[in-house]
Amino acid sequence: MVSNMIKKIALFQASSHFINKSFLLMFPLIFLIGCATQSQTSGSYSADQARKVQTIQTGTVENVKAINISSDRSGLGLISGGVVGGIAGSSIGKGKGRDIAAVIGAVAGSIIGDEIEKKVNTLEGQELTVLLKDGNMIVVAQEISDMDGPIRVGDKVRVITGADGLTRVSVN
């Protein structure tokens, strides 16, 4: 009877330890999701851009090139992945096997975390060549809007430029 109680206590402690490790594994991943880049579409404005005068020109799209817009990576994915992988690996095996599993888990987690951060911080965009009505030709790179979809060659567009030089293109 006493040995059964000891087994139950040991099982409870092991499951409690697993739950704590699971939380530690999930926290960095949830944090990474919150680090997603801000939208770079024609319809997104920062708080600093609201209620400020911007100039507008009109034109026609002459060329469109698909691009990826990548923000600078912080290294958070690499570090978080390494921590998560190390914790996961340390729960496998005993003794030296556990140490080896922790190292392998940390390395694999770092690689996976870095790839997750790269994907989260890369936007699908377009490089738009626009012939303005005044005869000037400009190029603007921006994210493809989920609401409006991609801009196409021949589209009549508005080119909106703020005092800070930030420019966006939207279908007229």
Structural commentary:
- The chain starts with a helix and ends with a strand.
- The protein has a five-stranded antiparallel sheet.
- The longest helix has 32 residues, at 2-33.
- It has helices spanning 2-33, 76-90, 95-120, and strands at residues 54-70, 122-132, 137-143, 156-162, 167-171.
- It is an alpha+beta fold.
- It has two domains: 1-34 and 73-120, no CATH class; 39-71 and 123-172, OB fold (Dihydrolipoamide Acetyltransferase, E2P) (Beta Barrel), CATH 2.40.50.100.
- Helix content is 42%, strand content 27%.
- A hairpin with a 4-residue loop joins strand 2 (122-132) and strand 3 (137-143).
- Helix 1 packs antiparallel against helix 2 (76-90) and helix 2 (76-90) runs antiparallel to helix 3.
Primary descriptors:
elongated; 5 strands; alpha+beta; 3 helices; 42% helix; 172 residues; 2 domains; OB fold (Dihydrolipoamide Acetyltransferase, E2P); 27% strand; five-stranded antiparallel sheet
Strand runs, count: 5
User: Residue-averaged pLDDT, rounded?
Assistant: 78
Fraction of residues in helices?
A: 40-55%
Would you state the CATH class of the largest domain? Answer: Mainly Beta
